[in-house]
Amino acid sequence: MKNLLGGKGANLAEMTNMGIPVPAGLTITTDVCTYYYENNYLFPDDLESKLKSAIGKIESAMGKSFGDVNDPLLLSVRSGARQSMPGMMETVLNVGLTSETIPGLIVKTDNPRFVYDAYRRLIMMYSDVVMEKAAGIEPDEGHGIRHQLESILNAYKIEKGYSSDIDLTAEDWSKLSGAFKSRIKNVLGSNFPDDPYEQLWGGIKAVFQSWNGKRAISYRRIEKIPDEWGTAVNVQAMVFGNTGDRSATGVAFTRNPATGENKFYGEWLQNAQGEDVVAGIRTPHPLNEATRTDASAGLESLETFLPDVYSQLDSIRTNLERHYADMQDIEFTIENGNLWMLQTRTGKRTGTAAIKMTVDMVAEAMISKEEGITRVSPNQIDELLHPRLDIEEEKSAPVIAKGLPAGPGGGVGRVVFTADDAETWAKDGKKVILVREETSPEDVHGMHAAEAILTAKGGMTSHAALVARGWGKCCIVGCSALNIDFGKKAMDVNGEKIKEGDWISMNGTKGTIYLDQLILQPADPEANESYRELMAWADEIRTLKVRTNADSPEDSKQAIAFGAEGIGLCRTEHMFFDPQRITAMRKMILAENRSERRNAVMELLPFQREDFKGIFEAMAGKPVTIRLLDPPLHEFITLNDEQVSELATELGVPPAKINSRINSLHELNPMLGHRGCRLGVAYPEITEMQARAIFEATAELNNVGVEAMPEVMIPLIGTHTEFENQEKIVRRIAEDVMMEKKIQFDYLVGTMIELPRACLTADEVAQRAEFFSFGTNDLTQTTYGFSRDDIGGFLPDYLENNILTHDPFQSLDQIGVGQLVRMAVEKGRKVKKDLKIGICGEHGGDPDSVEFCHQNGLDYVSCSPFRVPVARLAAAHAALKAFDKRYI
Amino acid sequence: MKNLLGGKGANLAEMTNMGIPVPAGLTITTDVCTYYYENNYLFPDDLESKLKSAIGKIESAMGKSFGDVNDPLLLSVRSGARQSMPGMMETVLNVGLTSETIPGLIVKTDNPRFVYDAYRRLIMMYSDVVMEKAAGIEPDEGHGIRHQLESILNAYKIEKGYSSDIDLTAEDWSKLSGAFKSRIKNVLGSNFPDDPYEQLWGGIKAVFQSWNGKRAISYRRIEKIPDEWGTAVNVQAMVFGNTGDRSATGVAFTRNPATGENKFYGEWLQNAQGEDVVAGIRTPHPLNEATRTDASAGLESLETFLPDVYSQLDSIRTNLERHYADMQDIEFTIENGNLWMLQTRTGKRTGTAAIKMTVDMVAEAMISKEEGITRVSPNQIDELLHPRLDIEEEKSAPVIAKGLPAGPGGGVGRVVFTADDAETWAKDGKKVILVREETSPEDVHGMHAAEAILTAKGGMTSHAALVARGWGKCCIVGCSALNIDFGKKAMDVNGEKIKEGDWISMNGTKGTIYLDQLILQPADPEANESYRELMAWADEIRTLKVRTNADSPEDSKQAIAFGAEGIGLCRTEHMFFDPQRITAMRKMILAENRSERRNAVMELLPFQREDFKGIFEAMAGKPVTIRLLDPPLHEFITLNDEQVSELATELGVPPAKINSRINSLHELNPMLGHRGCRLGVAYPEITEMQARAIFEATAELNNVGVEAMPEVMIPLIGTHTEFENQEKIVRRIAEDVMMEKKIQFDYLVGTMIELPRACLTADEVAQRAEFFSFGTNDLTQTTYGFSRDDIGGFLPDYLENNILTHDPFQSLDQIGVGQLVRMAVEKGRKVKKDLKIGICGEHGGDPDSVEFCHQNGLDYVSCSPFRVPVARLAAAHAALKAFDKRYI
Question: Which residue among A62, A157, A192, A451 is the one 20 to 30 A from A54 at the CA level?
């Protein structure tokens, strides 16, 4: 009943049912929260009577009464949503302490210091969480009531010469409580409530209010938690870990959450409350001897200090893990030697740990393989595929700037500001990070040489991002804090002056940048046995094939190593930037007539043929989808004055002619300009040359017994007539090559579906096309009218204002863009039942998008080599979800 | 049976049925043509026998036999498609003249000169039309067999000292026939056929072949005639207008095709064949006295020369016009005093004539009003709305360059190369034509001052085109022949040097440019009574409302005069370019924070308020749809260095700051960038200011009894959340203004549907939006992925290769873009049954698109003022077509 009781409430009820010692409590359900927000912040009429009756039951279970002047029951009030939102919502403890109940509790516990300490904790927490919010005050950070009370406490300690809270006596705490209450009255204008039920209702309201606190809302946005779920409120009898030396409190994980090792792992503190463990003021002790580390040397473990309690806890650990069949994150309190469990929930874990635990638990017959696979989120796999900054080092390093996390993993190197410098420095054995305003195809050699790439502009699918992800390279883009002075080879980053050669470190998974050289941990997933096993299971289960986007033999090999089953997108344009080739390309662009252009373009044939041979060989008979030339021609002649005169000399034409051609190729919106198949229509000789290179490579390899399976892809089709125009050329060349080389070979001609009109007329296009491959980057651009290069100008506002829940270039927009994809699949398959359909946009490596592809009957997804394992696992998840609702 | 017989064949059959003298003939139907192309250029098996039997019938009707050596029947072979394609296909005359039939015909006619003349005509025509094509020869222009034979003829005439063909004797023609045949044998490699049936089959094939000739294909593309219609072939007995002095030939229109005047109008020549009248070698005579002009003074009319025949012809004229209930274009031949009708077809006419004839024929009770309305094509109306170049002058002026016809009508003026010069010269009373590479909002003052606008770049919906059409101003764009040297204020146009101050003339309807100052005919449609009457009928019949796109009181008044029923698109950005305002706009753009930005933007409030008041007043209570700021901000700060330093001084900021902001606003694809509602989301103060200006204007006018009906339009919505974000601001301001001004007023908040995603999610958007207005320009851009500014780079290739049948920015793509429009209408109305829906893209003035809007249940179309009458008529057509299939 997690949806109604929240995670915490449900687990407390569950533990109670299991006979585990849990302080008695009640849960106000999430639908009360929904009611509260739908009814102008009012509670249901019967809530009060129901609450009173439930508190009656707590009283009898605990043998104490709420507000009793002799033996008062104290309560905690805690939030508990369907899905854990750690630290995002409010908690109030020690509710029920008033001027009337304090004396009785002192008598009962014979511990005035504990009671006054509890009271001041209530005051500090309650004034902050309940009263300040209720007063509608939103103080600047560091000026809230909590901060003011802490200042009073600090001043008091200085006055008294105390070094720690432990030094304060009962009297001190009592005095401070008085001082706190006066300050509260002064600042917030109302008295601290002295009625137990008033405190209780205030706490309940505060928890509900905190559901719509700023932090909670932004957390929900990131985690995609719906606003309408609401939170439950757990009201529970207080037990105390700070009532004396045989009291304690602790948190633990049933297995190691960082490594996945099957050892009981946790921390505890003697005579303390839960918040003390987390606060980090006192160093926590290790739970047991087996998990003791250097840091906890010399600190007594619970295992040795209270062996009976530890053994009881250890057996609860086993019970809980068996019961929930997953690693649990638990909180406990020992009150005068009695163990109380305060919470159990599924524990968060690193990717490495998730994989290990899963494989172990399957081996322990605790869960099935299928269940195990769903336990590891595809993005957790990614962690294993890239080097990472050392976690501990990163924790203590200050973030100097943030950008968009475009290429995951860590990167450490010296800053350089040009691609040429990057290459030169790298040749000298230096590790560099290439910093640019934005990158272009002309920077590729420097990007390749660099450890990591950092740009001031661009979005998640900008040139830098695409290229870096393709190589699995750390990359941060759109970091607007960079203020680069290319002349001086230096930059200002939020006030930090960084010059060429200075070390910086980057976390491309989070988008954070640090000064100096942090430690980098290398990646080697195949060395991880659990990883290999898990991926083998995933491959058994998934039905969606996973291909890769690769355009070199090296990338192809990398992708095969990661499990790719073919190439879904081989871009051919990168092949033209090599110095030997770019001149021929430029000659082609500058040609005056068709025959001149044909001559120039044919100079490229031997290069392209060798490119394709290398890739076909690397793929060893797996299908290779080759996209014909796509980018606008001006990308090949962005030249400065000097380069223009060099080229002019080389080609024997006046520089003015080159400049005039460059000028005529300039476009206002190149994304919507003369590119894709529009190039092939205007310059059929380009299509001819590329088709010939593909088919000659195929024929030559087949002739020596190496299988090659080319799938020729016509890009940017908007009308079936465009496809037919280009298809005719490709098929004619295929026939020619078969005749010339005296060999028959198989090939397909299909198209990239990346424009709304292609989806709308997919039935027409499928008449002739043998496959569809969705280019969802461009499809997202045109469906939304968002330029992926310019989205940085408004995306932050859109996320901020909840206009978009996520960047549609990262995860496919299933409502809009997805509607077009579904339409194209339906229309295409209506005409051609077994039409091969894949996706080759960046979304091919996004787990949610992979699931969408599976649901909509695609045959494969294609993504950059480093996303292949992620997609394999995501495809297995999708298959499981479709097969059995339990896995959703 | 026009579809089967073709227009000519059907009309010949029809005339025969009416008892009008027509030479006997047969028609090979269009489905034979289709068969021919589908079956690899073969005829149906039974064609030969059917043809022979039909020729038998012709023989008995005419009392002559085909191939008879004594009294041979001669035949003509002519094309005849469903829809007339004048001059696009082939004709062969005098088929049946051979070495065997010539002597008999000479005996029979006693006119050897006529016979040999006929024979040489057959040879010249047949060798060109049939033999050269069959030989697969495509000679360069001026080098074909026809040209060679004409050279022989000319050489012969020079040798003999003849000045005209009339001088040649029978012997001369006979000799020439021999020379022609030898040359044919030499050049084409085969003998001239001497068998009548061989000649006949050759002619039939040639006609079918000509259906797929280059000219015919490109004509069909322009006229949107489907390729699969095919042509019929008409084989008809020859009659001769050149057998002697009582023979003649002529063409006539049953009413004047230029003015529409109800007078029999035509030309004839004595002793001539039809082609002589058209060829222009001899000056044709007037048909009658009533239509005699200065040019035909002194030439005898048929009315006086052969009064009986004229009177027979005149009565046939009346019969034909009554029968077809439309003006006819007829051809006749008089053979030895006997009148033969060779052809009747509905005559082509000018717009002015179409309107006058229609209104007259309705008055004559010849046709109904409904029928009459469909007789005038909406584009013919356009002719009346703009000044035009004098037709005769234009005919004789050489075209120096062609571009895209972006703004119809004529324009004559002196060339200037900058907007400032245009303004200065115009102030001095000089008429100027502004010539630019392309225009930008900063050129608008010069564009306004100019008579016409000419640009080297841009497409039909480029800035220049949009602005010029809005003003009804002559404009040609994308004229790539312009080679402008702005430094020298001169240009080279296909070798013509044109410098500042030189006169040029432009036909913006055709896209043609001429040297010198041609005569310009002014426009005044309202002075045309027939026009007024026709438009009144159209308004009675149409159900689709017609609004206008206007953003000034002047344009609004113009549009009202043209019959606009509201403003469908009032763009607000043009209002910001006034010097007083642009500075505030730039301050706003350069503001460092929200409050600075708000202050700057609020400086614009009084200006905007006055703008809206002016427009509301002009529209007098008619609805005014106002689009909130749409273009990317960088359009407002495209500055050169000098302007930057001026602005820096004015605003008291360093120039570097301005440059840095300009730089940061630069976008790779501004069309898909930070514009539309994305501006309002990022800078809500802009939306607030604009909403306030609109509502304050509304309130102030309502308070003084002037009705104002604002419809606030949020641009570029892709998600319903964007709409809701902006709508909230607009409604809040409306409430505020009502409170402040103490008045209630009506207003709507709706959105522009111009992105595929808005269509796909129209059901979500319609939850809150009160109206939709399709922005089909942008919708076409994103659906096709075509930038309208850059389409010039590939559109010509696309039209050339039949990949597109028309520019989708001119006429709505009903298959792709239209599918999205239909989807949005359906989804929107599913949620809100009576959702108001219009269209405000450039398509709103395109007749086909207007029909599409009517069919799909839109409430209104909106177009530039000068297209309003066109749209009104198109809307009436659409209503008639929907009501009665006869009108399709």
Answer: A192
